[in-house]
Amino acid sequence: MTATATPGRDCALCPRLAGYREANRAANPAWFNAPVPSFGAIDARLLIVGLAPGVRGANRTGRPFTGDFAGTLLYQTLLRFGLAQGDYRADPADGMTLVNCRVTNAVRCVPPANLPKPQEIGTCNRFLAAEMAAMPNLAAVLALGGVAHAAVLRATGLRASHARFQHGAMHRLPNNLYLADSYHVSRLNTNTGRLTTGMFEAVLRELLLRLA
Question: What is the DSSP track for 17-74?
Fold first, then answer.
């Protein structure tokens, strides 16, 4: 298979995810219902990696972290730090653009119950690896959650044991990339107080200082 950063609309590499996609297409034909492409320019210095599209979020709208609760904290913070311009209105047609920043997911297709299986994460890693390799100015990756953290390590040819996930940790990888860790910006984490706006802003602020 030729290395590519974008799976085809009818990617069949993960049978369970393909079946779930077909079920969603039948139930909601007006939704995007396909592997969700990355958002932001390929020449960005910062790549933000989440887990997978939400069924009523990116799977519906076709833009990462758009249409469900998780996108509110993520994009409002990017706007506050000058990494995005415009207004986030949870709609790809809102006109918001990213500035020197790109957003993607470790798994491009929506999984049932928002939980991809380990084999699916591994299968989809080829797309993350190809995307990172195709970003000529990539200097840092912000991993939202432990799955994204492990996926980034795998995409760069490193073992999971190379760097342990910990919220707020800043790792310098052998290829000189910074890997920053944050808890995922999910409703569960924010509603329980595991991740606050201040905590997320602190991670991004520290990472941008490293890149200055």
Answer: HHHHHHHHHHH-TTS--SPPPPEE-TT-SEEEEES---TTTHHHHSSTT-SSTHHHHH
Domain that holds residue 59: 15-211
**β-bridge mates for residue 85, sequence order:** 97
Which amino acid does the sequence have at 150? Answer: A
Structural domains counted in the chain? 1
Q: What is the CATH number of the domain that holds 150?
A: 3.40.470.10
The angle at the Cα of 129, spanning 125 to 131, to the nearest 5 degrees, equals 115
Tens of pLDDT, residue by residue over 22-33, are 999 999 999 999
- pTM (2 decimals)? 0.96
Q: Is residue 171 domain-resident?
A: yes
The answer to whether residue 1 sits within a structural domain is no
Residue 8 in domain: no
Strands 140-144 and 178-182: parallel
Count of other CB atoms within 10 angstroms of residue 123: 17
